[in-house]
């Protein structure tokens, strides 16, 4: 990897995944927790939708590894976040309250990140994936985690739009490394 001109700026990697995980693979939450750890060990900040399920487990992994976690909430305030949406505030260093509901939150969440990593997932995850795909963002897909993550390859085939900047792997460490390589290609670097 080339040194980044602004080395003080950390990469911002989003974990997108199912808030309700009953349909995920049996090991999906542990794999997502490992994704959170790997994002931190690769000198990056984790961004989540400030939700339950897979993204929450990613936040746990990131915090256990000493990382920084930013949540992007659909709610207008902490009270609405907790009482109306029934979302957690633990394991996040900062939560940004958008007041835009889920669809608006998804747009801000993906646009805020340098890359998206998908683990398991349902309709909201698919929405975040398509936004990131249309924005030509680097996307990593954790295959074997269940849900929409295991359908994305087929969706890309049927969509007939190419693979974009999407990489696949079943190992969290390898997946994060592939995503970081893609992000690194899009950063401003020192010129010789």
Could you describe the 3D structure shown?
This protein is of the alpha/beta class and 192 residues long. It has one domain: Rossmann fold. It contains seven helices and seven strands; from the N terminus they run E-H-E-H-E-H-E-H-E-H-E-H-E-H. The protein has helices at residues 28-41, 53-64, 78-83, 101-112, 123-134, 152-159, 172-185, and strands spanning 11-17, 44-48, 69-73, 94-97, 115-119, 139-142, 166-169. The chain has a seven-stranded parallel beta sheet, sandwiched between helices. Helix 2 (53-64) links the parallel strand 2 and strand 3. The protein is globular, with a radius of gyration of 15 Å. The model is unreliable at 1-6 (pLDDT under 50).
Instruction: List unreliable stretches of 5+ residues.
Output: 1-6
Return the structural class.
alpha/beta
Output the radius of gyration: 15 Å
The third-level CATH topology is Rossmann fold
Short note summarizing the structure:
The chain has 192 residues and is α/β, with parallel strands linked by helices. The chain has a single domain, classed as 3-Layer(aba) Sandwich (Rossmann fold), CATH 3.40.50.450.
Write the layout of secondary structure elements.
Layout: E1 11-17, H1 28-41, E2 44-48, H2 53-64, E3 69-73, H3 78-83, E4 94-97, H4 101-112, E5 115-119, H5 123-134, E6 139-142, H6 152-159, E7 166-169, H7 172-185
Parallel strand pairs: 1-2, 1-5, 2-3, 3-4, 5-6, 6-7
